């Protein structure tokens, strides 16, 4: 179970019971059952067939500065430059 943020307050048993009574009395509150869970869609981006791999690598400062100077998306452009180099220097 993930850690909660500092200052998170849990309701007491009495408060929780009051909340549950309020939910039960609300005609607009719907039960979210197993069938609903099966129909639910995942949030966020779809999973990639070939996700990127996080690595730690060291480059010369001037190389990093040059790519960063191109603005947002510099890592994508660096990836494209490396991919282009691989295409041009394919092993025979």
Automatic annotation (TrEMBL):
Residues 1-29 are annotated as: Disordered. InterPro entries: BrnA_antitoxin (IPR025528). This is BrnA antitoxin family protein. It comes from Candidimonas nitroreducens.
């Amino acid at each position: 179970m993930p850690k909660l943020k500092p200052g998170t307050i849990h309701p007491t048993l009495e408060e929780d019971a009051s909340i549950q009574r309020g939910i039960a009395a609300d005609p607009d509150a719907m039960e979210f059952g197993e069938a609903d869970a099966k129909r639910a869609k995942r949030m966020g981006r779809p999973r990639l067939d070939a996700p990127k791999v996080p690595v730690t690598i060291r480059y010369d400062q001037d190389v990093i500065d040059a790519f960063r100077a191109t603005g947002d998306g510099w890592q994508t452009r660096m990836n494209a430059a490396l991919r282009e180099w691989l295409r041009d220097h394919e092993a025979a």
